[in-house]
Each structure stands twice: as structure tokens, then as C-alpha cells.
Amino acid sequence: MQVWRRRHDPLGTSIGLVPTMGALHAGHRSLIQRARRTCQTVVVSLFVNPLQFGPAEDYGRYPRAQSQDLACCREENVDLVFIPNLNTLYPQDFQTTVAVSTLAQRWEGEQRPEHFQGVTTVVTKLLNLVRPARAFFGQKDYQQFCVIRQLVKDLDVDTRVILCPTIRESDGFALSSRNDYVTKSQRQRALSLYQALSAGKAAIAGGLRRADLVEKNMAKVLDARHGLAVDYLACCDARTLEPLSRLRGTVVLLGAIRIGGVRFIDNLIVRIRR
Ligand code: AMP
Fold first, then answer.
1. Cα 183 to Cα 180, 255, 259, distances in angstroms
2. Measured between alpha carbons, how far is 218 from 255 in angstroms, rounded to an integer?
3. Which of 19, 135, 239, 246 stands 20 to 30 A from 34 (CA)?
């Protein structure tokens, strides 16, 4: 990867990187297209990173679809697909981790204690290997984006991180590689997460500024459904991800639920003008 990069991007100004775990869908495609529009050279990485899965999580059964992924990258005119080997990325004597503190400890970090450390370690390695001028991430994983933005700032990484919008199905359900884990009826109930966040956004648009009331509005939409556990549903400052009491500025509504043993996360950003 480094030899290729030195040859193709000696000035370090042309590469756009889209890091993924493969099983590419329209969400990933939108990131690739955005990179294609803005960068001379597009690199997509496919790597199911064991470090970011907890011991009881789905590393083993995470979907792997390399030939379809390569076909997708070919269709999108990707210049290089980087598929690192597990033992090359993490040789036996590997012993360094990269961890972001406060931002990575709340919300997803509380539910999945090792997760972000795995993400920040692999993303640091990918950024060092590819040295992209820009790296593209989806709003679907908004906290992940915030954590990576912090990492890039704190460690003086010479890459611009770009946030790309969440791609959804026509009813609003956010695309995810894990969506196939659930039955049709579970998927219908999981859709209430997006509906709850939308109710929160509508309440804010209607003038509500008390976070507890907006959160109550959102919870009501979810409570109506059976067999669904709520991990969190909160109004936060979009930069720090701290929970707010009075809503102002740019707010992110964050939510995570579990249904049939599968977790779903989603979020909406709301800009409050006054
Ligand atoms: P993953 O393969 O799940 O690790 O995701 C790779 C990248 O694709 C991350 O930056 C995700 O945020 C992004 N992504 C996943 N799903 C979507 C979606 N529905 N819309 C936009 N970006 C997405």
C-alpha cells in the first residue's frame, strides 16, 4: 500500500479514502461517489476489523462479500481496493492501541466498551498507510465520525475528514450491512427508531426547546412497540455529544435500540436558528 501510494501520490494531495468493512451497499456507494467527485485518486479499504467487535458480538457472522464488493468498486471507478490481510495488519507482536477519551466513552462507548478503541486504532493505521488528503465517513455512525475527527485533530493527521449524509430506504430506514440480520417484521418495528428521531426533529421545528420534553416525545414513539429495548435516545450537542437540557445551536438526536438480539443506531442533526 505504501509503495503504491508513494508512486501514485508523491505529493500527498490526491487520494480520497473510503474506509469500510465491506458488504457494500448504497450508503458506502454514496461515500465512494463523493470521493470520486472531489479526489483525483479513490482508495476504498475493505477490512472487517476484529478489534472493534466485543467478545459477544458478531465478528464471526459479519457479512463478507468480496466479489460483489469488487464489482461495486469497479462500477464506481475506484482506483485501488485495499484489502489488508488480518495478520499483516495485526502481526503477533502487535501491541499499540489508539484511544480517544471523553467523546468515545459516552453513548456507543458505554454500550460497547472496546469498540471505539478498535475503530481508532484501525483508522489510524489506514490513514498512515494510505495518507489520504481526504477521508469520507457516513453520518449513519455520527459518534464514530466525531471520534475520528478528534483523533485527526489531536494527532495532527494531515487528512480532512468529510461527513456524508445517511442513505435511507424510501421509508427512512437507514441502510446498514446488519439490516439482513432481522426478519421483515422486526425491521418494521426497528423503523420506529427513525420515526422517533423524526418526531423529535418535528417537535424542535415546532418550537420545543426543553430536551427532556423532546426526549419524552421520541420515547413515546418507541414505547408503543413491543419486544424493543432502548439503549439510549438523547438530544446532544453535535460537537461534544454532551446531553443538553436546553436546545440551541446544532443538536444531534442520537438513538440506539435492540430488537431480536440486533442493535440499530441512527441519528438526525437539527440546526436551531434561534
Ligand atoms: P461500515 O462498513 O459499516 O464500517 O461503514 C463504512 C462507512 O460507511 C462508515 O463511514 C459508515 O458511516 C458509512 N455508512 C454505513 N451505512 C451508511 C449509510 N446508510 N449512509 C451513509 N453512510 C453509511
1. 8, 21, 10
2. 9
3. 239
Q: Say which residues have a Cβ less than 8 Å from residue 242's Cβ, sequence separation at least 6.
A: 106, 236
- Ligand 1 centre to CA of 137 (Å) is 7
Residues 216-235 have pLDDT tens digits of 999 999 977 778 999 999 99
The closest-lying atom of ligand 1 relative to the alpha carbon of residue 165 is 21
Nearest to 222, CA basis, from 200, 184, 196? 196
Domains within the chain, CATH numbers bracketed: 2-164 (3.40.50.620), 179-269 (3.30.1300.10)
- 19 CA from centroid of ligand 1 (Å): 9
Is 226 an annotated catalytic residue? Answer: no
Contact 119/148 with Cβ under 8 angstroms? yes
> Does any ligand 1 atom lie closer than 6 A to the CB of residue 174?
yes
Match 435511507 to its residue by C-alpha cell: 168
**How confident is residue 16, by pLDDT bands cut at 50, 70 and 90?**
very high
Residue from 18, 30, 31, 254 whose mutation best tests the ligand 1 pocket (most atoms within 8 A of CB): 31
Q: Distance (Å, rounded) from C-alpha 261 to C-alpha 25?
A: 22
* 54 CA from centroid of ligand 1 (Å): 19
pLDDT tens profile 151-198: 999 999 999 999 999 999 999 999 999 999 999 999 999 999 999 999
Tally of residues, the chain = 274
